[in-house]
Each structure stands twice: as C-alpha cells, then as structure tokens.
Amino acid sequence: NVYAAMNILLLNERTVVLVDTHVNDEPTAEQIAEFTIAAAKEMQRMFLAPKVALLSRSNFGSGSSASGAKMRRALELVRQAEPELEIDGEMHGDCALDEALRLRILPSSTLKGEANLLVCPNVDAGNIAYNLLKTAAGGNVAVGPILLGANAPVHILTSSSTVRRIINMTAMTVLDANRVEG
Fold first, then answer.
1. 43-70 mean pLDDT
2. Residue 64 is part of a domain; what is its CATH number?
3. pTM above 0.85, yes or no
4. Which domain holds residue 13?
5. Please, which residues bridge with residue 54 across strands?
6. Considering the domain boundaries, does residue 147 fall inside one?
7. Are 69 and 103 in contact (CB under 8 A)?
8. Does residue 101 contact residue 94 with C-beta atoms inside 8 Å?
C-alpha cells in the first residue's frame, strides 16, 4: 500500500479535497494512481462524488515537464483501474476549478463542472496548494490530514491545527471507529 495524506477544505462555494499534502516527496505515476483511487474512495465513503483533476504546470500535454508526463501516466493507470471515475489531466489548478477555461483549452475534457479532488504531482505542490487555499479562504472549515493507505483509519493533527480542526478530526475518528466496529 502507498500512504498519502488527504486534506478537505469546506469552502463557502465548494468542497475541495487535496492529496498528497504531507507524505510522498516525489511519488511515481503508479503511486499517484494508487492514492488518487484511495482518495476518491474515501470521498465516496463521505457521500461526496469525486471529480478528479491531476494537476501539473502543463495543460493536457502542452509542456514537456517530467511532472506533466508523470501525471499523464497516472491518468492512464487510474482510467485502467477505475474506468467509471470522473478524472482528467494533467492540468493547471485554474483549469481544474474553472470548467469554461478548461473546455476552451481542451473541449474534449471528460471532467464536467468543477474538480473537487485535486491531485498534486509532489508533496511540495500539495502542501503549498492546501495552505494557500486554506489561508485565502479565511474562516472556512479544514479537515485533515487523513492518512490514506493504512489498514485502519489514521487521522493526523498538525502543529497549525485549530480547536475547530481538532474537534472535526475527533468526530471523524469516532465515525471511523464506529464503522470498524459495526
């Protein structure tokens, strides 16, 4: 199993989930595919329909970066393993959140609406994106990090955790404990 950290932001107009925000420095395409699927399944368990965007500094093959190639390979792997999952990439963050922009750049995109699961090419990108969104959004609710890939539910509190986040993570832990026992 590949471990990865998933964070959830409950913003005023949308819910955004980011992965991997804390674990894998430079994951392979195979690892990205594995934790993308794990994050999508975790979202489904929370009754959220995942709409996945694989993020990169290139848009749909527009650049020759290693991270773009890695994300394109991860897309192939996820589509093979989970053909029903709504996913596209590689793309910029603005394309992930703005359907009109995405469709102007790639009219054949299979992702409809706004992405709500943002998969980053490495932990630096994931952590930076999460902290920027969390701070720019102001007083919204942050949940996580939630460790994916473990045999049992694992929730992590970081040094920046607020009282509200501690309460949210405690509630998640209780729900997970009841699910395991039930």
1. 90
2. 3.40.50.10750
3. yes
4. 4-138
5. 89, 119
6. no
7. no
8. yes
